[in-house]
Amino acid sequence: MLRLALKRSLRLGPAVSHTPSAAMVVSRGYHERVVDHYNNPRNVGSFDKEDPNVGTGLVGAPACGDVMKLQIKVDEDSGKIVDACFKTFGCGSAIASSSVATEWVKGKQMEEVLTIKNTEIAKHLSLPPVKLHCSMLAEDAIKAAVKDYELKKAKAAPEQE
Amino acid sequence: MWNRRKNLLLSSLSLLRHISSSPHLPRLHPLKPSHLLCPSNSFLPPIDSQLRNNLLDLPRCGFPRNLSSSNSCSSCWNCGAVGPTSGAFLACGSCGAVQPVDASVDYFQIFGMKKMYEIEEGDLEGIYKDWQKKLHPDLVHSKSEKEKGFAAEQSARVIDAYRTLKNPLSRALYLLKLEQIHVDEEKTVSDPDLLMEMLEMREAVEEAKDTQSLKEIQSKVKKKLDSWSNSFKEAFNKQDFDSAVNCTQRMKYYERALEEITKKL
């Protein structure tokens, strides 16, 4: 069901292309890593937003109407990100960028993930220039998720600050 | 043809008598018709374009006059006839030759419409087809390479104009572009309420189990699109460009949702 949902939101079906633009895109070629993330989605899903150990980053690209939600689960003692998931409505590049982002943040410290740059994501996926903003969106989503977690923590224990 | 020129001469001579009595302009001599047809040929004093529009009220090919004053006096490369003083000069009214693209003519001028958001969408198709009857490349296959080239470009431009003006969002964005409002497309948006609403909307579309629920969502989204479309109109007319841009961003999200719904249906 989720795969179907992903396919639909990706507008890219390897077997069936519903629109001329999907067919053109296939022939122009998404990089194999992008296609891989699309065919084998990693970390799609949702955490409980209210969970104090979860940080939610919600970003959007108004130019293309994309929405990206990236969530991190943080171990409060070590400050390490133990799990991450995403939900993205947008093109294949946006979905792949957020998928890569969730993979890369797992097991890292929060300060560390803030140094992940969109250019690294774009390079990893061989994104064409016109899709660079998708990787930027992923970078912003990571930062937003970390910021959200820290805000939550600050609100929860102000006396300890 | 001669009657037109005669009328033109008479009306312009009376106007010129009026001009010549003004202290700011040199005295004029009676003019021959051919000179009048090409005012750029120096005998006429420099007059502003508004006056020129009144002076040279040449009949156009039935297209509505618009308010722009660009396109002051182009002449046909083929027969030399002067094009309309206002309105798009895409094909010559006299010999039918397709003219080269003039990028300063905007899409509203091509359709003879006022440069504003509320337009008569129903009129677009008729005007579009009328233009294509004159400009389509298939009509010029026996003409010169030069004209074939012009036809290909003009025809493509008219298609662009039609598509841009027909869709409310693209029309809105085009209007902003004409006002030199540049929207930074790379900028990420993080307004939580807006994004949450869009996320939930897209999720609802994905999880919709049947045509009925999809159609319900579709009509809700269409209503929102219409309401934001009105907000854009108001903001734009008040020249509140920041709000206008904000409206177009929302409209984009709603349009995306509608596209997804259409695909699912």
UniProtKB/TrEMBL annotation, chain A:
Signal peptide: none
Molecular function per GO: 2 iron, 2 sulfur cluster binding; iron ion binding
Gene3D superfamilies xref list: 3.90.1010.10
One of the Pfam families matching this protein, by short name: NifU_N
Stretches assigned to the NIF system FeS cluster assembly NifU N-terminal domain: 30-155
Hydrolase recorded as keyword: no
Required co-factors: [2Fe-2S] cluster
One Gene Ontology cellular component: mitochondrial matrix
Compartments (UniProt record): Mitochondrion matrix
BP-aspect Gene Ontology terms: iron-sulfur cluster assembly
Superkingdom per UniProt: Eukaryota
Family affiliation: Belongs to the NifU family.
Protein name in the entry: Iron-sulfur cluster assembly protein
Taxon lineage: Eukaryota, Viridiplantae, Streptophyta, Embryophyta, Tracheophyta
From TrEMBL, chain B:
Keyword presence, Iron: no
GO biological process per UniProt: [2Fe-2S] cluster assembly; protein complex oligomerization
Domain J: 106-178
Entry GO MF terms: ATPase activator activity; protein-folding chaperone binding
Keyword Transcription regulation appears in the UniProt entry: no
Cellular localisation: Cytoplasm; Mitochondrion
Name this polypeptide is given: J domain-containing protein
Originating organism: Rhynchospora pubera
Lineage per the UniProt record: Eukaryota, Viridiplantae, Streptophyta, Embryophyta, Tracheophyta
